[in-house]
Amino acid sequence: MGIETAADERLAGRLAELRVERGWTLEELARQADVSRSTLSRVERAEVSPTAALLGRLCAVYGRTMSRLLAEVESEPAGVVRAAEQRVWRDEATGFVRRAVSPPHGSLRAEIIEGRLPAGADIPYDRPCVPGLEHHLWVLAGRLELTVDGERHDLGPGDCLRYVSGTSRFRNHGPEEACYALVVVEP
Fold first, then answer.
1. The domain containing residue 20 runs over which residues?
2. In total, how many domains does the chain have?
3. Does 120 share its domain with 166?
């Protein structure tokens, strides 16, 4: 079963472009991202949509935030993005939903993201997308366990954690969905 939306097809195309721009083979990218060649090939051909963890690994290899990568596949940047027009990306494997709240634009140094993590979800990011990236995670509802560089933080509604990019793991032990706002600031 192939990817169904034009945005997903543009994402697949952009991922392939990034690899080619660097002169890498699929094997080289697979080695750097620690992902199988066949998985990368299927993602680049738009046969499957990447998971949040896989997209995180690719962003780390390409030195981009996930939001910047997703903004690169947008048709045109806008000054205002109405709620109904904000880009939403779903990780079918975990149920994670990511909404790009900020207007997408490649030159912006900060962005706001809404994350929704269902009960039981566990998403590890084994490397930062961009070294030195500053994060401010504000929990709006539910509970979230966030481990950054081995340090565990149990967060509830209203709690805000500031951290600089590193390895991270987002877990929701439940019983309800965790909803949070994440402000990301590039160095």
1. 6-71
2. 2
3. yes
Indicate the pLDDT class of residue 4, thresholds 50, 70 and 90.
low
For residue 146, the domain's CATH number is 2.60.120.10
The CATH number for 25's domain is: 1.10.260.40
**Nearest in space to 138 (alpha carbons), one of 117, 162, 121, 171:** 162
The pTM is what?
Answer: 0.64
Q: Are residues 141 and 114 in the same domain?
A: yes
Q: Tell me the per-residue pLDDT of 97-132, one tens digit each, with 9 for 90 and over.
A: 999 898 766 657 788 999 999 999 999 998 887 788
Cα–Cα distance measured from residue 64 to residue 76, given in angstroms and rounded to the nearest whole number:
19
Longest CA pairwise span in the chain (Å): 46
Q: φ, ψ for residue 159 (rounded to 5)? A: -70, 145
**Same domain (yes/no): 47, 139:** no
Residue 79 burial (CB count, 10 A): 6
Sheet holding 144-148, edge to edge: 122-125, 168-171, 144-148, 151-155
Count the Cβ atoms, other than its own, within 10 Å of residue 187.
10
For 89, other C-beta atoms within 10 Å of its C-beta total 20
